[in-house]
């Protein structure tokens, strides 16, 4: 379906958008996000991780890439982790 038509239908029938998606629809560009999700994964079950999980994955990657052997305290402070947790991420 053409995006323009999908957007018009979504705007007209916004009261029928299921509860988990109403918050997304109300956000800036939210309808566009819902339409994009429907185009990509429509009809499929879709797992959306919690924000905390996404943050954790990004933080782990950053720590592994930026660790220089001396900055575990800095990395811990940056992400709100203990130095012990930073070392466990690094496998030390």
End-to-end gap: 52 Å
**Gyration radius from CA atoms, angstroms:** 20 Å
Mean pLDDT: 78
How much of the sequence lies in strands comes to under 5%
Computed structural class? mainly alpha
Give the biggest beta sheet.
none
Number of domains: 2
**How many β-strands, per DSSP?**
0
Low-confidence stretches: none
Q: Could you spell the SSE succession in H and E letters?
A: HHHHHH
Number of helices: 6
Percent helix, as a range, is 55-70%
Shape: elongated
In short:
The chain is an all-alpha fold.
Describe the structure.
This protein is mostly helical. It folds into two domains: 39 residues, no CATH class; 40 residues, no CATH class. The model has no long low-confidence stretch (mean pLDDT 78).
Main attributes?
single chain, 92 residues, mainly alpha, 6 helices, 67% helix, elongated
SSE order and pairing:
Layout: H1 3-12, H2 19-26, H3 30-41, H4 51-66, H5 72-79, H6 83-90
């Amino acid at each position: 379906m053409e995006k323009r038509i999908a957007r018009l239908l979504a705007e007209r029938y916004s009261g029928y958008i299921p509860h988990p998606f109403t918050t997304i629809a109300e956000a800036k560009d939210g309808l566009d996000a819902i339409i994009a999700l429907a185009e990509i994964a429509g009809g499929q079950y879709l797992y959306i991780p919690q924000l905390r999980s996404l943050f954790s994955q990004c933080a782990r990657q950053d720590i592994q890439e930026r660790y220089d052997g001396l900055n575990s305290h800095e990395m811990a402070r940056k992400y709100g982790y203990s130095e012990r947790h930073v070392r466990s991420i690094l496998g030390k």
